[in-house]
Amino acid sequence: MLHIKSFTFNLFEENTYLIHDDLGTAALIDPGCHTAVENRELEDYVASKSLKIVNLLNTHCHIDHVLGNAWAKKRFGIPLWIHPKEVPVLKSVEVYAPNYGFQGFESSEADHFLEEGQEFVVGEEKLKVLFVPGHAPGHVVFYHKSSGQCIAGDTLFRGSIGRTDLPGGNHDQLLEKIKSQLFTLPPETIIFPGHGPETNIGFEKVYNPFVGEKAVY
């Protein structure tokens, strides 16, 4: 069984996810932790569940999703996985981080690269890597078929979609990819977004004002 624990970190109120199997093998997704208090919250949870984090994943590499990358790599001794198209996105964070008030931001580099359609193994569980660019050029999501759960980053939100006015964004592409990659998943699939509350595919296919059946184009 795949277990998903969410944390809300940093001034952007970003959702960080810790996923693990029944035996405690875990992966950390989009660590937005930035302060000592946030780091400790994550550490305490890991300790309380006796988890062993073995991998670090980024759905994409905007600042709010990578603030804890360098810390997590060192603290848990784990490699970072991103899509190749996110390399320049990750690199750019160290340039603009001070503009957002994140002084002393420590950059990180990818150790491995994710591929579209790849099955990523977390202990006894497998997640499929879906390629959903538009918010960011190399944005991926992680879909766990057997439990009907999807870590979706900043692609699809409850009643909204990821912004596309940032460098590398493409509005039409994001709409198309949501329809072809996410809306083809079963309607009961739970979406764990990069910000805000959970939602599900069935609800968004009907009521999402950007891509739902009732959307006004």
TrEMBL record:
<dbReference type="InterPro" id="IPR051453">
    <property type="entry name" value="MBL_Glyoxalase_II"/>
</dbReference>
<keyword id="KW-0378">Hydrolase</keyword>
<keyword id="KW-0862">Zinc</keyword>
<feature type="domain" description="Metallo-beta-lactamase">
    <location>
        <begin position="13"/>
        <end position="195"/>
    </location>
</feature>
<dbReference type="InterPro" id="IPR001279">
    <property type="entry name" value="Metallo-B-lactamas"/>
</dbReference>
<protein>
    <submittedName>
        <fullName>MBL fold metallo-hydrolase</fullName>
    </submittedName>
</protein>
<dbReference type="Pfam" id="PF00753">
    <property type="entry name" value="Lactamase_B"/>
</dbReference>
<keyword id="KW-0479">Metal-binding</keyword>
<dbReference type="InterPro" id="IPR036866">
    <property type="entry name" value="RibonucZ/Hydroxyglut_hydro"/>
</dbReference>
